[in-house]
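User: Quick sanity check before I run a bigger batch. Here is a single chain. Can you write out its predicted 3D structure?
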Amino acid sequence: MSINLPDKSKTLIPTNEAFGLEGVRKFLNVLRAIRHPVDGCPWDLAQSHETLMKYFFEELNEFAEALRDFGPTDPRTIEELSDCLLQVGLHALMIEEKGTESFDSIAKIQADKLISRHPHVFDPQFPRFKSAEEVNLNWEKIKAWAKAKKQSQSGEENLPSQSFEVPSGLSSLLKAMRLGEKAANHGFDWKNSLAILDKISEELLELKNELIASVEVESKAKEEFGDLLFACAQLARKRNWDPEQVLNDANQKFQRRFQKMIELIEADGKNALDLANEIQEEYWEKVKKLGL
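Assistant: Done. Predicted structure follows.
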């Protein structure tokens, strides 16, 4: 596959400081101070890439929650985003301390990658795209071309024209959605959300049949359940929903309703553990009518 990457000398990227870099300089100077081998913070100096990863994921989740609850312009959301920047900065600084790359060179690597993968923005000779779907397809082609080129230079066999890989660290739900996206970029996809709903109904029926037919042997039923979850992830993808967030919202709603149900039961002088399921269902319906 041959892809003409943009001539970076033709790109119109501002070389002045119109965007402002004072905050970036202060941020990097503060990071270097807390990681100073003599006068720095003992806790920060004791950290490694591995020990910081849990904080990285935690900060990303807190940013996602703030974005959902408060919106993108709320000061709480901005602060959570700055916490994510801290994690990026610390990892970059630790690499810099090893004498390999600096924060600036790492940022330049990403800038060059963005230029190469957006020829429709930076290359005046490249045709304009009319939809996000066209951009995604071209993005995958360029990624595959770049990866095959690297492997060719290192003596490895080239990858197929478009790699069908997703990061192994993703949750299973997000991985299912990304696999669906990549398949869609190959033209393998359902026409619309209703078509996926039909698939979900089909998978649900197959799961029901397996549960009825194999009460003792559940391996096939588990497989059908996996197919059902995969199909549900594709519906989320088609609707541009974040399946992790949708499921998290459902978890929180259940938690609110269940807690309120317990409160109503106790307000009546009863113990939920002593009530039959049918009675608990009645309380559950009362909670739902409250709009929780």
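Residues 243-267 form the longest helix (25 residues).

User: Great, the batch can go ahead then.
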